[in-house]
């Protein structure tokens, strides 16, 4: 994209309307985004990126800047976390493995715990991406109406970085680390037996445990029942109103978070193109100064300002890659997960409705025992989803508010740094100009 006509400090793009203070526990959830959705052209593939680990952390430019609002968010977060945490998980040390039939990456998973159900206080195992997929599927199987945290996508799509590049591996490592810690912080999932086995079993033990799962015919039977349930009538007759409202909320949320995700990637792509052009723009002034003796110092000053603004832009891009894009994409994946959870709840409800209808047609209580069990199953599913929904929504609102606050702070630092750079240059030019005028006035 050409940078012609752009100023060195590009106009501040307005943050998404989720910004605000820290989330208040127990507050009534409000709609996250505005009612209207921006129209997007589907003219190009959006480029997915990974954070360059060489980029410096974004620091405050001036000591005169007021205390960052994020300090309040951090304080809230610390107060909201449990005082005694008994499970700590780290995912690190990616390692490549090359065999005759495949190439894959494993990650070290280190677990430290004080829980009594663990035989040791510390474990270290290596896991590949397929193991994480297995854990997610087991959690969904055991808890069909709980909100399981998302995993990064398995396949590399057009426009993404190379699968085995350092940037992609580091991005995936961070996502896997977050996935396990989201599970560890969940009040129910953290005590799942498959989760414990995932954290503690050696590779051969985990492989043996995987083979003990439900057989192929059993899984096919579950899939057939799920499809049949979704096909019947296209809906659920006795769905409680609150779950209809959840479904409507998630449809709107999914649409808007996908729009934000696409726009954020476009913004980052434009920032990167602008950054690359600025890297070429500054040195031209330095070369020019060699042939213009009278304005050489001014040209060198302009080149220095452009170089400083270029470095500030690099910091700003690092802030986007660290604070904004990962969170937005995570909640794009969350929206898909929640739609799946609501469908599974409807499938359980559909089984009950189907059995009740069959009982009515028989005009006898042939299925009273099965109906009772299904009613209990529906009630458990409803209660699990209601509790997890409130928890997820509060976490989502907190994540969005803190993310947009961080983006706003990074933008402020960027423009303050660029403004101070150019003001300093202008002040030096005025001093030189006054000195030249004084020298001309002297006899």
UniProtKB/TrEMBL annotation:
Pfam annotation, one family: PX
Alphabetically ordered keywords of this record: Coiled coil, Protein transport, Transport
Chain positions covered by the region annotation Disordered: 1-25
UniProt xrefs under InterPro entries: AH/BAR_dom_sf, BAR_SNX7, PX_dom, PX_dom_sf, PX_SNX7
UniProt keyword Transport, yes or no: yes
GO molecular function (one): phosphatidylinositol binding
GO cellular component, one term: phagophore assembly site
Tagged with keyword Transport: yes
Domain of life: Eukaryota
Chain segments annotated as coiled-coil in the UniProt record: 345-384
Ranges of residues in domain PX: 85-206
SMART domains reported in the protein's UniProt record: PX (SM00312)
GO BP term (any one): piecemeal microautophagy of the nucleus
Family: Belongs to the sorting nexin family.
Full protein name: Sorting nexin 7
Species in which this protein is naturally found: Amazona collaria
Taxonomic lineage: Eukaryota, Metazoa, Chordata, Craniata, Vertebrata
